[in-house]
Amino acid sequence: MTAPFPMQDATPAELGLDASRLERLCDRIEADIAAGHHPGAQVAVARHGRIALFRTFGQARQGVAARPDTLWLLYSNTKVITAAALWALAEDGLIRLTDTVAQHLPGFEAHGKGGITFIQLLTHQAGFPSAEVPATAWEDPAILREVVCSFPLEWEPGSFVRYHPATAHWVAAAVIRAVTGEDHRAYIRRRIIAPLGLGDELFVGLPAEEQARAADMHDVDGTVRMPEGSAAGRAAGIPGGGGYGTARAMAGFYQALVNGGSLNGQRILSRRMVAYAIRNYTADRLDDYNGVAMHRGLGPHLRGETPLARGLGAIAHPRTFGHGGVGSSYCWGDPDSGVSFAFLSNTRQTDEFHGPRMDTISTLAHTAII
């Protein structure tokens, strides 16, 4: 039996939001679908522990309408969920985020990686952004540990900020197993997702019985992307890019973070731990991957005060934090207003389209705050 969702619905006005601005946001999503930019999408906006907007658009798969319970590939939005698992390890006294990774994953010190801290790992300063984890390691923890420990350095840790698309969070998965004895998928579900009441709508590792709910992820030309669309890819729980969820589940996850670690009375993290995680650790240093300042926290990035922004909305409060999923999605929370936002779609669009699209949609959400 499906449990009730942990956040109740409310009208925008009840939550101090402008309904007309949220309708403009939805109009933009509908226009993009009509123009063929993606077959389907879902959006949610929440505040003060309640949902002001939750709407589903278009098709999940060819000929299959998207539904409220459709699960969308989160891509790198998954990174913040995995990062929160490391915050929880620190919260429980099992690691310190200032520790070196090798203190908790012996063997990781190989090839000059002994000094890399969890802070460097989570702020994309570790020095191995281009390393690869083969599919053979997805379900074999011994292979995974061997692979991540053998990563070679590309530059001195801490000397650059460069986005690590997958490798840093595979290291996090190996650490979770080394410290707890649990598979990272099981630990994330037990420690982060289930206590928040999001277990029916948020997954890192999609079980076989839930895969029929998954939307296909398409390329710009409309083809279904692989291995993202394979059963093995969905089940793997790729910690930097393989989660699945609904928009309201992601809005709920960020509600917990903007509320200092709790949702609907259920606490997963202390207020101080969340505040520590969403500090700006990289100041205005440029991320060498995309050429803009990302203001990295320990998982999410922050809006900051530089002119250019990624996905969070140009007019966002500087403390707004969140993450995107390549070409397809963005989720964020605003501690100043208490608003959280999630937009998920099922096409991996070009940066030239996705960046301006998300700036517009996120900005419309910010303008709705009364």
UniProtKB/TrEMBL annotation:
Gene3D superfamilies (UniProt xref): DD-peptidase/beta-lactamase superfamily
Residue ranges of domain Beta-lactamase-related in the record: 29-353
Protein name: Beta-lactamase family protein
PANTHER family associated with the record: BETA-LACTAMASE FAMILY PROTEIN (AFU_ORTHOLOGUE AFUA_5G07500) (PTHR43283:SF3), BETA-LACTAMASE-RELATED (PTHR43283)
Pfam families in alphabetical order: Beta-lactamase
Alphabetical list of InterPro entries matching this protein: Beta-lactam-related, Beta-lactam/transpept-like, Diverse_Enzym_Activities
Transmembrane segments: none
